[in-house]
Amino acid sequence: MGSAEYQDVQIEASWGVPESLYYNPCDRYTVNTFARDVNDISDDFSRFTLRTDSKGPKRHFVAPDVATGHFVRYEVPPPFDWKPTISEQNTLNMMAAYTRQLANIRKHPVNLMWFVDCRTVDGRQKAIPWYGEKLEELSAAAYRRNAKDTVVNISTEEELVALEKIRKSTFTTQNQGRVVVELNPAENIALRDARFAERVGKAAARLDGVVILNGATLSHIYYVLQGTGAEVCSRSTRTLEVDREFHRKLVRDKIPEVVRSSGEEVRIETLNKVERQAALRVKLLEEAFEAKDAVAGELLGELADVLEVVRALARASDLSIEEVERERKKKELKRGSFDDGIVLMETLSSSRGSDTSEDDSQNDLVPSGDVRGSSHHIQLDLIGHGWRDVRQGHDYWELIESVTVPLSHREWSIDSKGGYAPTVGEEGTRLSWELLGKRVGSNLKLKIRIKLGNRQLALDLPADFK
Fold it and tell me: Closest Cα partner for 225 from 161, 332, 138?
């Protein structure tokens, strides 16, 4: 959804046909176009940023059954349950720009449906706009769990009929919570017919209950439920208003002016001398990592950033850059520089005296004074397993395992190398894990995936499905 007035465009996406978005969790993206005026949107999307990227597990999606043509709810197999539905930033940028431009033409906010990465007679298309409508701002509070609530799950026609027969007096006893309707349709009629959702909304309204919507708040079903008078709560909230974004990041002195010129408001704080020293030390790490990650053509700019931080840190520490340069030259004279590419591979302290024979010297692992050149690739930042320990008893099994990952890696993964067979639980059960890391600036983001068992989900899809 988007508007000509606001810079942000919100996008919700899932696998399968559009009905997948009605009731199932989906990915949510917010693209900032960095242009208050639609006519100022850059043609190459160079200023666009993905301000939020909320991806979670997508347990189900909807697609036609090959034999009957009926819509069926399928389970999403790994790794697609956690994989982003739209992985290319440029596709999101194009969708955001088009949505704002359409809203400008129609003179009102729009809710626009797209088909993404689909096959056509002309080949695969990144994104095709399909259906648009005027966006009505509707409120949706996030559901707050109450232990006294009565939760009713509605997946089939039979369950809906049972809900419609419940008398309101059943839930008006003293200290009784509310009726909470979890809407998770699994049948063709429930998935495709909006009247099913309308009946659910009316039944919930009659009981003064609340309907929990797990799917997209941009979907048509959301509006149908709101129209019944029922209170609708969403697993996520949405609004056209720009959210506050907290950075708490040390930036160059003129950055606030740059941000204001793009149409955003900023709030800044100024650090005292002690705080500035601490912040610049962290900033130095961040800029050093960016220099490490720089590709062709970027290194010059990243080195300039490192040098700027070094100069600022020296000033904040009451040091002159000349003092730093003098110290650098002293170390260069005493220990050399880094121009020759020398890598210290190993050292050995000999237990013998200096009177070693020629034969003894040849038997040393690293003979004294020997410097060896190397023409093969030497990897300095290896990722590896450390120590591991398994503790077990009559009714417990515990695994402790360590790994070593140099911070020089920008993105990495390491797994359990085949897994383990716990001595508790069902016989034949295997446990495996995978640790994934990604460094963003000076922050390290970690994700751990644990698998217990050998079950692999399967989909009954056409042979040519890709």
Answer: 138
